[in-house]
Each structure stands twice: as structure tokens, then as C-alpha cells.
Amino acid sequence: MSNPMPSTQHSSKQQAIIDATSRLIIEKGVENTSLADIANAVGISKGTLYYYYASKSDLIFDVTEQHFTQITEGLFAWVDTVKDRSDPREIFKVVLETILEAKTRARLHIYLIQAVSDSDTLLRERVQQKYQEWHKMIEAGLTAIFGESENHEALAALVLAALDGFVIQSHLGIDPIPVEAVTGWLATKI
Questions:
Q1: pLDDT in tens, 79-125
Q2: Closest to 110 (Cα-Cα) out of 51, 161, 171, 176
Q3: 26 CB contacts (<8 Å, ≥6 apart)?
Q4: DSSP state for residue 5 in the 8-state scheme
Q5: Is the whole model's pTM more than 0.90, yes or no?
Q6: Which of 17, 50, 160, 187 allows an S-S link to 89, with CB 3.0 to 4.6 Å?
């Protein structure tokens, strides 16, 4: 099917759909957010929404992908600016605190993980692939900052698991999360 809209208008509308979906998921959760809710929030018809997304799973995947990309790009941009001036403990501390302090992002993260784990196989496979890419990005970031090491693959997996776990603990209000102790330990594993 040819795209009758200019690509900037198309991508702008698609971004509006992703933004509205993210806001609604944060407010209501994935299960309680309908395609009609999303279309209403964007100010388009449900048919127009289907023009951009054939299914809710496709839309959830794009929201998830953008969520991971925003977290990763923001953190790597910060890490890149400080890598020559900070010790590993400080870098890990900022990474963890950045994730934990973004309450709305944490809530979105939890809802997206729940939706993926409860979803069809295709969506789960697509998000698993994104997690693998995120893992590789973290591993590459560790290598860029700290140089080559066999530990980076395992450390990247640990950082990713810790981020997910700490987001859940933070969302549940479990205090205090021992950021200083965790970052100190991670710094010794480089």
C-alpha cells in the first residue's frame, strides 16, 4: 500500500500515537487501554489508527522499543560525556539512580513487561530480541568505558537484570534500595 501522506506527517502522527499510548498505559495499564482510547487521545478515528498499526501488539512493540531506546540513548549520552572523568562506581550509580528516579518510566516499564509476558508469541519474541540488543548495547558501553574484559557479557546481563529488579522494587515502594552497595560491588567486577 502506498503512503498518501508525506513521511514527516506520517511519522509525526505515528509519534503522537506512541506518546498517547505511553501516557494511557502509565495511567491505566496495557490491558485497560483500548485502541479506541488511544484513537480518542490522539484525535483520530479507530480506522486511522489501524492505518498506522494493524494490531495492538504492533503498537505495544513500538512503545516498548522506544522506551528502551530512550533509556539507553540517554544513559549512553551521559556516560560518553563523563567516561574520562568518573570512576566505575559513579557511572553505575548514575545509571541506577536515573532509572529509579523516573517514576513514570518505571511504571511504563513494568506494564510493558507484564503485557509482553502475557502476550502472543510474536510480540514476546520481538521484545526478547530487543532485550538481546539492549544487552549488547550495555556490553558495548561497558567495553567503551572500561576497555576489553571477559566480564562485560556477564556484567551486562547482571546490570540489565538489576535494572528490571530495582524498577519493580522501586515501584513497590521497597526502601531503601542499596544503590551505593550495589554500585560499589559492580565496580569491582570490571
A1: 666 666 667 777 777 777 777 776 677 777 788 778 777 776 777 88
A2: 171
A3: 104, 107, 108, 111
A4: S
A5: no
A6: 187
